[in-house]
Design brief:
The complex is a heterodimer of chains A (about 325) and B (about 180).
Chain A: H1 2-10, H2 12-45, H3 62-72, H4 83-98, H5 118-126, H6 128-139, H7 143-174, H8 179-189, H9 198-211, H10 223-226, H11 236-261, H12 272-298, H13 306-334
Helix pairs in contact in A: 2-11, 2-12, 3-11, 4-6, 4-11, 6-7, 7-8, 7-9, 7-13, 9-11, 9-13, 11-12
Chain B: H1 3-7, H2 10-31, H3 35-55, H4 59-84, H5 100-121, H6 135-143, H7 147-168, H8 174-182
Helix pairs in contact in B: 2-3, 3-4
Classes of the chains: A mainly alpha (about 325), B mainly alpha (about 180).
Chain lengths: ~325, ~180
């Protein structure tokens, strides 16, 4: 029985379909778990109750109800809007996020595809979302959307650089760009890279927060200034796409940070054969820890001003990341 | 090799499909009546080109194309277009009167490239190994055998960057300087 199953899954098209189905199920599930966590944690931090009625206990079914509600809503496209671009934008944003799942290692051998250029692929494909955000901002034919889209583009260009540069230190230490290879290098070294790459980790997390346009970097959707920025005109399931992409992106960014700097699915002291089963849970634990920090920041820091955001990226993070690369490279050669 | 032979290989279906996408998008880049649409068609053309590189097992080059061109250059294009003027709808003023000369130039470039590749390879078939080029190999050849051209290109790019900033930069007049510092 198991043998027939294995042989069926060795067929390229069957395994491709299986992997696609798995990702298609994972994204909404993760979106719901993180979305619910954000609702409940935000409520806790503001001394509110939060979702309470849906589902009976703790309001656990709140986001399922929300999802059904979004699907029932009318798909409104503004009259002045550029319809094809307006319709394609949320799909592109979601694609840029979903494609990131391909290279996240959940355990030894448990990865959709261990690309040789793994982390580089992740950084490249996530830039598709930026194009989607610009498309959404422009095609809505709404001044708030346009300003939101412009702010998002300026921010994403500025923070893409420190994000890429922060990763380089880890790649130099591991000697590979494959995500699986980076985790294996950390296992071989016996310590997670955050111990030596703490500067890189800090820069990566700040840049990731900015890429996610989360507080304190949420100027593109600043409610008090821009209604909802580039998402203003979206409703129904197209809004749901942006919502899902936001939380799925929070997950993938945390997972990449956990893999590059915190040892991914590995914990010091856990034997190799246990990792086969415990790996995904260890990774999820680290991801939820980072996601919790992101939600926590949301209720801790005020929003930056646009010029402060730009000077933080160009005057602090980029030079710091370059120094980090130079020091790491020199130490790698000398030691 | 006949066309029937060529088309019977699945890899070539994808090559044909992506090639057609690139051609269509490239054509629409110059004919689109809306600047933003033209830029978005350019995204399609570049994505198709990246897919062609993937078919050639040049994984690193493909993702460089996505990261640098789609992720940075096109985003800057769109940013520039939107920050200046970005009406939705058609812009008839985009239809340039000068069509003959660019068409001639494009045809000349096409003939030159086609002639060069036919002259160099003719009907010789280069079979792909099927496995993607290891990034390690690429890095070693870039910093080993080709290190001098690599450094020279890097130096020229830096010079171009500094030159670009110098050309675009305008020194503030004393009055403007004062105004800037007052804020």
């Amino acid at each position: 029985m198991i043998e027939t199953l294995t042989s069926v899954f060795e067929n390229f098209w069957v395994s491709l379909a299986g992997k696609l189905l798995l990702v298609a199920l994972m994204v909404p599930l993760i979106g719901m778990v993180l979305g619910f966590a954000e609702m409940k944690l935000s409520a806790k931090m503001q001394a509110r109750v939060g979702p309470y009625f849906a589902g009976g206990r703790w309001g656990w079914a709140q986001l399922i109800a929300d999802g059904i509600k979004f699907f029932q809503k009318e798909d409104i496209i503004p009259e002045e809007a550029d319809a094809p671009v307006f319709k394609a934008a949320p799909i592109l944003v979601l694609v840029g996020t979903v494609a990131l799942f391909v290279v996240i290692p959940f355990g030894p051998g448990l990865i959709f595809n261990d690309l040789d250029v793994g982390i580089f692929y992740a950084l490249a494909i996530s830039s598709l979302s930026t194009v989607g955000v610009l498309m959404a901002g422009w095609s809505s034919a709404n001044k708030y959307s346009l300003i939101g889209g412009l702010r998002a583009a300026g921010q994403l260009i500025a923070y893409e650089l420190p994000l890429v540069l922060a990763v380089v230190g880890t790649v130099i230490m591991a000697g590979t760009m494959s995500m699986q290879g980076i985790v294996e290098a950390q296992i071989a070294a016996g310590y997670p890279y955050v111990i030596l790459q703490f500067v890189g980790f800090g820069i990566f997390m700040i840049a990731a927060l900015a890429e996610l346009t989360r507080i304190p970097f949420d100027m593109p959707i600043a409610e008090s200034e821009l209604v909802m920025g580039y998402v203003t005109e979206y409703s129904g399931f197209r809004f749901l796409f942006f919502f899902l992409a936001e939380f799925a992106n929070m997950f993938t960014m945390s997972a990449i940070a956990a893999t590059l700097f915190l040892g991914g699915y590995w914990l010091p002291g856990v034997p190799e054969d246990v990792l086969e089963f415990a790996g995904p849970f260890i990774l999820l634990g680290k991801v939820f820890l980072l996601a919790f920090a992101m939600i926590w920041f949301r209720w801790t820091f005020p929003r930056f001003r646009e010029d402060q955001l730009q000077s933080l990226a160009w005057k602090w993070l980029v030079p710091l990341a370059l120094v980090n690369i130079a020091v790491t490279a020199i130490l790698k050669v000398v030691l | 090799m006949t066309f029937a032979d060529w088309i019977s290989e699945p890899v070539n279906w994808f090559f044909l499909a992506f090639g057609l996408v690139v051609l269509f998008c490239g054509f629409r880049v110059v004919t689109a009546k809306n600047v933003v649409h033209a830029a978005l068609y350019l995204v399609g053309a570049l994505a198709g080109t990246a897919a062609l590189f993937l078919l050639l097992s040049a994984e690193f080059v493909a993702w460089v194309l996505v990261l640098v061109y789609i992720g940075a250059v096109i985003v800057l294009f769109l940013f520039g277009i939107m920050i200046t003027r970005a009406p939705t709808g058609l812009d008839e003023g985009l239809d340039s009167e000068q069509k003959a000369l660019p068409a001639l130039l494009s045809a000349a470039v096409f003939v030159m490239m086609a002639w060069a590749s036919i002259d160099a390879f003719g009907t010789e078939l280069i079979t792909s190994t099927g496995s993607p080029t290891a990034t390690e190999l690429l890095g070693q050849s870039l910093l080993g055998r080709f290190v001098i051209p690599f450094e020279i290109v890097g130096f020229i790019l830096l010079a171009a960057l500094v030159g670009g900033i110098t050309v675009a930069r305008r020194d503030l007049t004393p009055a403007e300087e004062e105004e800037r510092s007052a804020v």
